[in-house]
Amino acid sequence: MAVETDESGWEVDPDDEWGVAVITTVGRQLKLRREAAGMRAGEFGVAVGYGEDLVYKVEGGKRIPRQEYLDRADEVLGAGGLISAAWEDVKKVRYPKRVRELGKLEANAVEIALYECHIIPGLLQTREHARAVIGAAQPPYSPDDVERMVAARLARQSVFERSPAPALSFVLEEGPLRRPIGGTMVWREQLERLLEVGRLHNVVLQVMRTNCDTHSGLDGRIELLKFPDGTAVGRSDGAFNSRAIAEPKHLRILELRYGTIRAQALSPGESLAFIEQLLGET
């Protein structure tokens, strides 16, 4: 059996208290069961197909074990499914804390409005497009971290599967739609995804053309989320020091800016036609 290296684990963010607690508890239980079975770490590593160093890091709460690791450990230690069941807790903390928090807000929102100026929003990205965007970062992430971040980004897209469906509004800049991130095939797949999402009954997707001579979104990204209880939260790159705000008077400013941007952009029908045109040019 090939032994997988340390790279196959995920690092635990020391500032993520909940994540640290979960992974430390799981690691401790794995160590106790291994020792009760009379197996040394190296022997256990060979049996499950992972390196000894990774075994120590998982047991020490320094690495997030993958589901395959827990399943193999369960089989080797004869835990009868108890170790495999730990995945239900582990999977809740496998993504970075800030992504989990954003995903939770989006999952509870009844309305999501987003203006994005430099990239295609994460909620709309395909897997390969997300991988290309994240993989282009400098300094570069490790391949394993890239995959972790891609998985986290795609997990947020469960918002499209909710019932009842939230109302979603997106305004995208023309520039990122023309940039062939990841190559022609990845680019085409991304444009096709935008058309697919843009035709959903609960989605309004608009494009801001570069030849628009009036633009109220030059300060940067704007996001607004509204919740069932009537509360809301917003964030803007160019207002309130980019912090999340919930005060009604501040939210009204962001709503005004977003509404103005929507009025300046192409209509939803014109936007889909424009994306179809771009797709035809690829």
Automatic annotation (TrEMBL):
<dbReference type="InterPro" id="IPR010982">
    <property type="entry name" value="Lambda_DNA-bd_dom_sf"/>
</dbReference>
<dbReference type="InterPro" id="IPR001387">
    <property type="entry name" value="Cro/C1-type_HTH"/>
</dbReference>
<dbReference type="Pfam" id="PF19054">
    <property type="entry name" value="DUF5753"/>
</dbReference>
<dbReference type="Pfam" id="PF13560">
    <property type="entry name" value="HTH_31"/>
</dbReference>
<feature type="domain" description="HTH cro/C1-type">
    <location>
        <begin position="29"/>
        <end position="84"/>
    </location>
</feature>
<dbReference type="InterPro" id="IPR043917">
    <property type="entry name" value="DUF5753"/>
</dbReference>
<protein>
    <submittedName>
        <fullName>Helix-turn-helix transcriptional regulator</fullName>
    </submittedName>
</protein>
